Amino acid sequence: MRAIRTLATGAALLLAVASSAQSGPFRDFEAQLRADYAIYREALFATNKGDASASKARVDAFAAAWSGLTATWKSAPPPQYADDGKFAATLEDVRTAIDAARAEVANGRLREAHLGLEKIRDILGDLRKRNGVRSFSDEMNEYHEAMEKALGAYKTLDAAALPQLREDAAVLSYLSHRLKGAPEAGGQDVGALVDGVAASTEALRKAAAAGNVEEARQALGNL
After folding, report:
1. What does the alpha-carbon distance between residue 94 and residue 209 come to, in Å, rounded to a whole number?
2. What percent of the chain has pLDDT over 90?
3. Which residues contact 110 (CB under 8 A, 6 or more apart)?
4. Which of 46, 55, 190, 199 has the most CB within a 10 Å radius?
C-alpha cells in the first residue's frame, strides 16, 4: 500500500496518451488536468487519513483548481474530446462530487467525503474510455482496484487460501508489469516508485507460490 500511495501523489498520474509532437489545446488540457489531479490525490489521502484540517485545505484547493479548468474548457473542449457530447456534463459531474465532498468535510464526515471523491476517478475514467484515450492513471487504477480486492479478501490468511492467492497474485503481477511498461513510468521520478510496486507484487507471488503463509501475509501488507 505504501508504494502505490506514494506513486499516486505524483503529478504524473493523469498522463494521457499523446505524442510529444502534439501541442496546443490537446497538450494544454492534459497538463492542466494533470496538475488538478495531483491536488485531487492529495484530497483523497487527507480524507482517507482522517485529517480534518488537511482535508478541508486540499478539497478546497481542488475545488478552486477545477473551477479554473472548467472555465477554460467547458465551452471549448480540447480536440481529444471535441466530439464528446457529454464533455461539459462530465466536468459538471466532477464539480457536483467536489461540492458534495466539501459538505461532508464541513460536517466532519471525512470517510463519506473520501468515498464521494473516489467517484471522480470513475467519472474521468469513463470520459477517457468513451473517447479512446488511455492514461497512466487508468493502468494504476486497475492495479489499485485489484490490490484493494486482494487486501479485503485475505484479511485472515491461512494455508487453505493459498491456491486462490496464487491466482490473485499472478493478476497483480501482470498489472504491475503493465505499469512498468507504460511510457510515462520512466519520467518525473515515477520510475523508481513503479519498480517498488512491481517488487512488492513479485514478493507476494513468490510467497504464495512457495506456500509460505507468513511471508504471504507480510507481502500483502507491503503492497
Report:
1. 42
2. 70
3. 47, 50, 51, 52, 55, 104
4. 55
